[in-house]
Specification:
It comes from Agromyces mariniharenae. By secondary structure, this protein is mostly helical. Helix content is about 65%, strand content about 5%. Helix 2 (about 30-55) runs parallel beside helix 4 and helix 6 packs across helix 15 (about 405-430). The protein starts with a helix and ends in an 8-residue tail after the last helix. Residues about 430-435 have low confidence and may be disordered.
Length: about 425
């Protein structure tokens, strides 16, 4: 089944690139089509590797990731055409190169990690790696500030990588291992209030530590979205491990309280809240720095797309600032319409649902928590990005998984897919637990 789904996925991706060229230029340029074909060959290479090392892996994860990655490349290429960019220096070609690196990383992950339980041995090492990766952007000389957020590292004048993307995987491994080891103490009952059993005060340490880490990301790295991603990941994994809703209530109270305090004391956070609450105010729209111009342009782009979109190459997504990364959802919404966005969101829902199914069907507690955590990272990241673009929540600087331009995000998300594939193969090979195909 996976092979035929991959064939369909590659056909969809090739058709998207051709339609972009016909819609925007009126002709077909074979260069990018050939580069896309090379990327498809790598995807089939991952499929072949799985036939040897993970024959029973979930058949839907790889095709879904392939389609999302390909649609993102097509949209970035369309924006390159609008901006008059081309050749090897264009964003679309860089995205193809990063996609190739990411798929190779996924193949390496499948080959090196033959059993996910091996990761359990490196619980605290994973935590240390995550902390080091989070601190790297603050190191003088290699840390870089891009668009107000200090989350990049680079050499010379170029910001090349966002280590926080890899840190989320290391954190998922650490949280899973830590919660398996300490679940009993975290499940101890303290006070009963409003019908819920709240934990003892002495057991609040881990939650407070992760909360403090998230607040530090907001203060020092100026990145509200990443802080929410890390804290939300821990909160959900904690709930799955203990089955106590009180942890979620406490966690949400802490984070919302911290975010509100930040909105009153930190200018860049208060600007995001002000833009969210009143983006069409002339004062906000005309503000040179930190205003709502990007948000409003994205909303106009979505409105211009309507139900079925303008068609590939027929819109004006380039009018919105950074349409190939932060606002690629608005770009796709303009040219593919509401129907296209719903189809893309349905792919994400299916991807996350398969991840949750893999996690909950796991035969060991570590695999269960890891699978749920990795799937939830993708779900929460999509919600944060799409919610910000559509004004459901304040806008943050995260990238849409697989779609948006960004090499570090691609590498991290393809590794997540590889780990979920490894987990699903383990589950399917277990004599008592089987995932429906």
């Amino acid at each position: 089944m996976e092979l035929w789904l991959l064939v369909v996925a590659c056909i969809i991706n090739s058709a998207a690139i051709v339609l972009v060229q016909l819609g925007a230029m009126g002709r077909i340029d074979t260069q990018l089509v050939l580069l896309g074909a090379g990327l498809s060959a790598l995807v089939f290479g991952l499929h072949i590797a799985m036939r040897f090392v993970a024959r029973d892996a979930d058949p839907f994860l790889l095709p879904i990731a392939t389609v999302l990655n390909g649609l993102g490349i097509a949209m970035i290429y369309r924006i390159d055409i609008a901006n008059g960019e081309g050749g090897w220096e264009s964003a679309s070609v860089r995205q193809i190169v990063w996609s190739a690196i990411a798929i190779v990383a996924a193949i390496a992950t499948m080959l090196l990690i033959r059993n996910h339980r091996v990761l359990f041995r490196y619980t605290y090492l994973s935590g240390l790696i995550a902390i080091v990766l989070l601190l790297l952007p603050l190191v003088p000389g290699i840390g870089r500030e891009v668009s107000g957020a200090r989350v990049w590292i680079g050499v010379g004048d170029f910001a090349t990588f966002q280590p926080g993307e890899i840190a989320k995987i290391a954190l998922a491994v650490f949280f899973a291992g830590y919660l398996v080891r300490n679940r009993d103490s975290l499940s101890m009952v303290g006070t009963k209030f409003l019908g819920m059993q709240f934990p003892r005060a002495r057991d609040l340490g881990p939650l407070l530590v992760v909360w403090a880490l998230s607040m530090a990301v907001i203060v020092f790295q100026r990145d509200l979205g990443t802080a929410l991603l890390y804290f939300g990941l821990f909160l959900v994994m904690l709930y799955v491990a203990t089955s106590r809703l009180s942890w979620v209530v406490l966690g949400l109270t802490l984070f919302i309280g911290g975010a509100l305090v930040a909105s009153q004391t930190l200018d860049y956070v208060s600007n995001r809240f002000a833009n969210w609450l009143d983006p069409f105010s002339p004062d906000r729209f005309d503000q040179e720095f930190g205003g709502s111009y990007q948000l409003v342009q994205g909303l106009f782009g979505l409105a211009n797309g309507g139900l079925i979109g303008t068609g590939w190459g027929q819109g004006r997504p380039d009018i919105t600032p950074v349409p190939q990364s932060d606002y690629i959802i608005a770009s796709l919404g303009e040219e593919l319409g509401l129907a296209g966005i719903f189809a893309i969101l349905a792919l994400y829902v299916l991807l996350v649902a398969r991840g949750f199914r893999i996690g909950f069907a796991g035969q060991d507690d570590f695999g269960k928590l890891l699978g749920v955590g990795l799937a939830f990272v993708i779900a929460l990241q999509v919600f944060i990005v799409v919610g910000g673009v559509t004004r459901v929540i304040p806008l943050t600087g995260l990238t849409t998984p697989f779609l948006a331009a960004g090499g570090s995000s691609l590498v991290a998300n393809w590794i997540i897919v590889a780990l979920l594939l490894r987990l699903s193969d383990t589950v399917r090979n277990h004599p008592r637990l089987v995932i429906d195909g």
